Amino acid sequence: DERYNFSNNETNTTTTTTTTSSSSPNPLATVAANGLLSLS
């Protein structure tokens, strides 16, 4: 259950980050978001 929830949360985070990055005009925001994803 914990493993499934972790995978589900990771997927949701990736989707949210991708949407935010796509709508964000600031390239630094995209870089920061990608950095956070690789850290987690």
Description:
With 40 residues, the protein is mainly alpha-helical. It has one domain. Helix content is 88%, strand content 0%. The protein has helices spanning 2-23, 27-39. The radius of gyration is 11 Å and the shape is rod-shaped.
Largest sheet: none
Radius of gyration: 11 Å
pLDDT averaged over residues: 63
How many strand units? 0
Domains (count):
1
> H/E order of the elements?
HH
Class based on secondary structure composition and strand pairing: mainly alpha
The rounded distance between the terminal residues' Cα atoms is 19 Å
Helix content: over 70%
> Any low-confidence stretches, pLDDT <50, length ≥5?
none
Number of helical elements: 2
Strand composition percent: under 5%
Shape: rod-shaped
Annotation keywords:
40 residues, rod-shaped, mainly alpha
Task: Give a brief outline of the structure.
Residues 1-40 are annotated as: Disordered. Residues 7-24 have a biased composition (Low complexity). The protein is mainly α and 40 residues long.
Question: What is this structure's SSE topology?
Answer:
Elements: H1 2-23, H2 27-39
Biased composition (Low complexity): 7-24
Region (Disordered): 1-40
